[in-house]
Amino acid sequence: MERLSENQTIRAEGTTGLSRRAFLKHGGGAAIGLAVVPAAGLAATSPPQPTLSASFSNLGQDLGKTLMRMARDIFPHEKLHDKYYAAVVNPYDQKAATDAAFKKLLSDGVNDLNRRSMKRFGKTYAEILSEGDRVVILYDIEQSAFFQKLRGDLLYGIYNNKEVWSQFGYEGSSWEKGGYIERGFNNIDWL
User: Fold this and answer.
1) Which regions in the chain score pLDDT beneath 70?
2) What H or E segment, with its residue span, contains residue 78?
3) Domain membership flag for residue 6
4) Torsion angles phi and psi, residue 130, rounded to 5
5) What pLDDT is recorded for position 26?
6) Cβ neighbours of 87 (radius 10 Å)
7) How far is residue 63's CA from residue 70's CA, in Å, rounded to a whole number?
8) Is residue 92 a part of any domain in this protein?
9) Could you tell me the residue range of the domain that residue 77 belongs to?
10) Of the candidates 153, 165, 156, 160, which has an alpha carbon nearest to the alpha carbon of residue 79?
């Protein structure tokens, strides 16, 4: 088998003849760009997005606003509408009406979050404009039962919602359709 140099190209039928070196060079630049852009976004200061939430008659508007802000910070997807986060958070108000322990978990968790935010930044969690600063506070409470409850509900509530799958490029289960082998899995024309 003949060995090719770094700059030689392999031309298969229907390919453009991109060299291995060029592919790695451009692919590496794209990977660095993808790593830098999100990190730069953390440092950017932007006002919190308006949130859709129920009246939170049992929990109160401040607690509801904080839970919605947390939801967006735990699983940040700018392209997802607030209604997908609200679908997870809004039922907490109804549950809090009948479950005193659950209501205490949420109110104590938000109070602790706001206490830490005030100590570090002089503002409540929902008032902090920088996502990066809010994430620092979330790291502080990440092991708490409050954080784990919200994170777990969001994980299931957002990513198991069939309405958002297309926004992530996921087509859903494939086994009913014969699997992925004949549906694009082996489509590797870039090689």
Assistant:
1) 1-54, 183-191
2) none
3) no
4) -85, 120
5) 52
6) 14
7) 10
8) yes
9) 46-168
10) 165
The amino acid present at 187, given as its one-letter code, is N
Structure-token match 């839970």, residue found:
67
Q: What pLDDT is attached to residue 169? A: 81
- The answer to the question of residue 89 being in a domain is yes
pTM above 0.85, yes or no: no
Six token digits for residue 167: 């926004």
Q: Looking at the 3D structure of the chain, how many domains does it have?
A: 1
Structure tokens at 116: 């830490």
**Residue spans of alpha helices (H) in 44-125:** 61-74, 82-89, 91-98, 100-121
* pLDDT for the residue 174: 79
- Separation CA 33–CA 46 (nearest Å): 21
CA distance 90 to 83: 10
Instruction: Provide the pLDDT for residue 51.
Output: 46
Is residue 54 within 8 Å of residue 83, measured between CB atoms? Answer: no
Would you say residue 2 lies in a domain? no
Structure tokens at 178: 């014969």
Token pair recorded at residue 96: 């809090």
